Amino acid sequence: MPGAIVITGASSGIGAGFARRFAARGYDVVLVARRTNRLETLAEELRGLHRVEATVLAADLADPAAPAAIAAALDERGIHPAGLVNSAGFGTASPFVAEDAARVAAEVQVNVAALTLLTRALLPHLIAARGVLVNVSSNAGHQPLPGLAVYAATKAYVTSLTEAIWQETRGTGLRVLALCPGPTETEFFTAAGSETFKVGATKSVDDVLDEAFAALDAANPSPVRTVGAANRVQGWAARVSPRRLRLWVAARAVGSA
């Protein structure tokens, strides 16, 4: 029987989708998020459908102590994870000068610090298990986005970190993936309080997961999977375009020009 997959942001959206897909493959899952009632409902569903162990860990990743607390809780339960999916994250949308400082601090803590420290804490287990690491980044991380400056910057960090880990762990058997979806049918836009993030075609959670698992199952996978052919073209164009042009196009795309 496969080992346990730890999934943050598991109470809804892409995180919950990963939990369902991994449970269907026979993996035990550890569900991490703030909303305990949603996690318990999902855990009960997965136990009933797939006869797997589903452990609920309530945690607020905006708390700097959360990554260490999650790692300690896993140790206390004797859970040695074979996989980690960092799906928790949120965005803010406004000119940087108008951003609420406390909200920005929480955004950086969840999207960057918590993801980094939880990955570091669990990575030895993942390598030993020849398991899987998925960091949910974003198509937004392929270029700076005026009007979404902090969110895009945090996702650029996630993609960069994941690519480096992919290279460092080559030959260990660990599968490492930075998943970069565009707009997806989740609660993300409600939490952000803005439709500004809806740049490009909106995909379903199943669309995103199909691409994620196709990448993970590939014989020689790339470290980055951008979801959707149009988004892949957009990401390539952002890398090769002159900097001033790239910023102008990005500002127009999010309506900040």
UniProtKB/TrEMBL annotation:
<dbReference type="GO" id="GO:0016020">
    <property type="term" value="C:membrane"/>
</dbReference>
<dbReference type="InterPro" id="IPR036291">
    <property type="entry name" value="NAD(P)-bd_dom_sf"/>
</dbReference>
<dbReference type="GO" id="GO:0016491">
    <property type="term" value="F:oxidoreductase activity"/>
</dbReference>
<dbReference type="Pfam" id="PF00106">
    <property type="entry name" value="adh_short"/>
</dbReference>
<keyword id="KW-0560">Oxidoreductase</keyword>
<feature type="domain" description="Ketoreductase">
    <location>
        <begin position="3"/>
        <end position="186"/>
    </location>
</feature>
<dbReference type="InterPro" id="IPR002347">
    <property type="entry name" value="SDR_fam"/>
</dbReference>
<dbReference type="InterPro" id="IPR057326">
    <property type="entry name" value="KR_dom"/>
</dbReference>
<comment type="similarity">
    <text>Belongs to the short-chain dehydrogenases/reductases (SDR) family.</text>
</comment>
<protein>
    <submittedName>
        <fullName>Oxidoreductase</fullName>
    </submittedName>
</protein>
